Amino acid sequence: MSTRSAQAAQAAIGAAARELRLPTIRAQASRLPEIAVRERQSYLVFLAELLAAEVDDRAERRRARRITEAKLHSRDRTQASSEPRQLLRPPTTAVSRWGQSSWLQTSGARGLDETQKCLPWW
Q: How far apart are CA 34 and CA 68, in angstroms?
């Protein structure tokens, strides 16, 4: 293959990989064919290696993105595991409003005990 046709092929691969959103294939399109020729790999083995590199790179980027989105940095994980868990409690304003609701005042006349008065949806 002449230099000019190799350059045209590299440009076509780069354009197609950009259009198909295959950044790893675009980045490794010049390096991996040289390795395949040197190791005398078949086209199928070369294609399998190229696609495996893309899949692995995407999995790594996905993992890194999810960690970033979850804001799970190593410092946060060690602090979270060393601190005791706190139970979730409703805000005090909500609790005070429950005590002032008309439902509680009318249900008290029906003889509900104190536990049932604290939970207006029961």
A: 35
DSSP for 41-75?
Answer: --HHHHHHHHHHHHHHHHHHHHHHHHHHHHT--HH
3-state helix vs strand vs coil in the chain, percent to 5: 75, 0, 25
Q: Alpha-carbon dihedral of residues 12, 14, 16, 21, nearest 10 degrees?
A: 180
What single letter denotes the amino acid at residue 55? Answer: V
Between CA 13 and CA 6 the distance in angstroms is 10
Question: What is the per-residue pLDDT across 2-39, written as a single tens digit (0 to 9) for each?
Answer: 777 888 988 999 999 999 999 999 998 888 888 889 99
Tokens representing residue 14 in the block: 């780069």
CA distance 94 to 108: 19
CB distance 58 to 83 below 8 Å: no
CA 103 to chain centre: 44
